[in-house]
Amino acid sequence: MMMDEMEYYRRQFYVEAKEIIEKATEDVLKAETEPDNIELLNSIFRGVHTIKGSAGGFELEEISEFAHHLETLLDKLRNREIELTSEIVDIILNGLDYIAKMIEDCEKGLKPEINYELIEKFKSFAIPSKESENIRDIETSEKIHKEEAVSIKREEIPLEIVENLKDYYERGYKVYKILIKYTTDEYINGFDPLIFLKNLKSNTVYYQAITDISTVPPIKDFNPLTLYLQPVIYIATDLNTEEIKDLVFDETLIEIIDLSLQFKVPEKPEEFIPFEAIDKDVFNEFMIDAFEALDTIEKNILAYEKDNSLEALNAIFRAVHTLKGDADYIGLNVLAKFCHNLETLLERLRSGKVKRTPTIIDTLLKAIDILRITIVNLKTNKGYPFTIHQVESELKEILSSKEPLKEEPILSKETLPPEDTLNIFLDQASQFRDIIKIYLPKGLDEQNLKIILRALRSIKSSASYIGLYTLSQMVEKALSLHEEKKIEDFQKELKSIEAFLEGLLSGGVKKLGEILLEDQKITEKDLKEALSKQKKIGEILIEEGKVKKEDVQEALKKQRLMETGAQLSSKVTVKAEEEIKTMRVDERKIDNLTNLIGELVVVRNTYEYLLNSLINLFELNRQILRAFKDNLYQFTRLSYSLQEGVMSLRMIPIKNVFQRFHRAVRDIARKQGKLIKFITEGEETEIDKKVADMLSDPLIHLVRNACDHGIEPPDERKAKGKPEEGTVILNAFQEGSNLIIKVIDDGKGIDRKKLFEKAKERGFSFQSPDDPELLNVIFMPGFSTKEKATDISGRGVGMDVVKTTVESLGGKVYISSEKDWGTEVTLVIPTSIGITSALLIEENNKIFAIPIDYVLETLKIPASKIRRIHDRIGIYYRGSILPCEKLINLLYQKERTFRLGYDEDIEVPIIVLKTRNGSFGVLIDKLYKKTEIAIKPVPETLSNIEIISGVSIMGDGKVVLVLNPEKLV
């Protein structure tokens, strides 16, 4: 592999590693509040393990070694060898931070250094205390003694997997260990183990793969056609060993080890849960939903008994599933377990693995009666009825029954089971069709024949399993022909199977001519000539001697087989659930595409300009003119749709920015002994990724300030009559063409007197502490009211960064504060860069554009109605006075207008603008039209002029300045 490719993949690793660290950090913070949540600890462990392995693959040994020591600590935590404490949380977070730093060093081309001090801390925390070790020994001893539990050694199967398998075994599932024996030769010949693993996973309730990645070489030595991994799979499933073998093309490629015998443990009787242990408010809501669910279940059981309705069965399943979840949520464990067994029976009825019988209907009705009595008893605090265990035993007996029950079939002979099973079959069918297409033309030598026969046996069992008996019989016939050594007939039958599968998978039927052409019996010229004659194509080709009668008969047979497959396709083909698929795209490609769309809009405007010029200069035919205008409309619509699509690619939820701050709040609160609740709102608000990247630093400064300067310690808050826990809110929403972000705290607020004194010391000339501009002084570089700087804040840098960054985006910062009540900082950021609608106007012989989102209305009024109001001019507008000003004065910052200088009869164009400061009228020379323009960032030479938010190129090639109404008024 070339070095530039190696570097590309290494860069991809850096991006993915950062994402893993962000996710792991979030999980660590959650785990601190949910220390018993093993899945969170497993998630963190997997993330660090992935970084360690990938770093080793890219020869980043320092990162791999450091991550290994952190991984060891995490492994102890998830195996419950040590308890999660606040100190351990801190050291894990420090470890994740340091890995992020090492990755940043690598990105910069620096060699990362291992932090041995942190490694020693990992080791010290990974050593359990003697006391906790003794307690664990006692607990383990008691557990083994009481349950005679698992005889599997921990070295062979991780403890977590053992516990999960045991849990599923006790719920009535079969548990297996599966060894994969695929070789590189099988893989090259088209037998992909991933097909089997996918099929297997979709048929399990628990699936865990253990993989040794040490066999995978570095990327420079990696061969994509070599199988390096041989995972060991642990599963819990309803399938028996024969059914698992049916999922693989050749059963010799796997080894199945039944683990059930090692989990036979006497059942523990469930304890009753007293009503008092459950929150009454939640329980009352549960009662209402439960009785409604029971009514639904009972009604549908009767419908299912009467009509064998699959729809009724699905309704029962959904209601029981919901009831199970609700019961588990409020702590009714016995009820939840009972519902789980009932749900399992219903699922097997749906899949056809268990058939409907009068006995099963009776058991279902008994189960509903028990559920109803149980819920009534819980309401009156009588406890569970004794018969709940009896009915539960009946459910388990049905589930464990190995003898097929006398059935009333749910499925007709060619009716198919659920979607997940069908999707598995379709994968196999597609693979088998490809095997015939590839290997049959090569000839039936020993190797090719072995591959085809293996596929035939697999497709036969799969077709029988899902009820496609037509296909199953065809395959059986082909196998018989092979055993009888009838090679020619065997090959013909393979072609028939291929035709059937083609129709099944495509849902369509090829025409006779297409089949003959595909089989190379005729040429395209023969086909065209035959089609030009008004007669059946088969008859024509035979009459003209182009094909033999046998060839046409064979093609017609193939067509009929395709038709049969296509008819069944409507049953077999199922709509896959919609899923969100993501793809990594280089940001530069998106930027380039955005620029191209902008140029397309300029070209559209040029087209419109040229069309208008043609209309003005020449007398065009009406039809031609209409065609031009229709074409312009289509051009406009398509360019706008493209722009919308490209802009949506750039947008990400602001949640991606907000979620980084939970860690900062948590660290400050712990360090300063404060209680802080951090609330984020509007996380789904979308924002341009570039803007999001730029806002990360300003927002972290604001959040830190709110926690450090704003929120008081608990005792101080209590003395003020406030809750001991302070609140910091981070809120985002869209307002017109602006993104609004607010950082709000309910802390001590800003002490205006102290700020006033500090401002005077720094030479600012404010008249009093009540000066409305006083608060803005905190945005000055180096300004801070803190006497002593800390590692959190106080150096006078943060707020300056906030103001500078927001203004570089064309935005504005507002602040309001009240002593002892809190502070609110508002960021207003325009989102108009890109393509937007704008109003074109003229002033002083120059064209300007104003984003349409700011335009409330356009007017033309007689000059006589424009009045002088105090020291400015205005008009009477919709029941109130609207202040106005000439645009030329606003542009050149001239003195306010006292006299218009217009004749009273002249109509003056006015734009009514709506900004954060209110409505305002702007007098201009001419109004043009609304149009779509591509706004480009302000050139560096104009970047210090606040009233300009961007530039655009018009159709005639002129450059137009886009005005910023927020700064203009």
From TrEMBL:
GO MF terms, alphabetically ordered: ATP binding; phosphorelay sensor kinase activity
Function, as annotated: Involved in the transmission of sensory signals from the chemoreceptors to the flagellar motors. CheA is autophosphorylated; it can transfer its phosphate group to either CheB or CheY.
Keyword annotations of the record: ATP-binding, Chemotaxis, Kinase, Nucleotide-binding, Phosphoprotein, Transferase, Two-component regulatory system
Domain CheW-like: residue ranges: 835-969
One Pfam family of this chain: HATPase_c
Top-level enzyme category: transferase
The keyword Phosphoprotein appears for this protein: yes
One GO location term (cellular component): cytoplasm
Superkingdom field: Bacteria
Record's keyword annotation contains Kinase: yes
HPt domain segment(s): 2-106, 275-378
Name the record gives this protein: Chemotaxis protein CheA
Phosphohistidine PTM sites in chain numbering: 49, 321
The enzyme's E.C. designation: 2.7.13.3
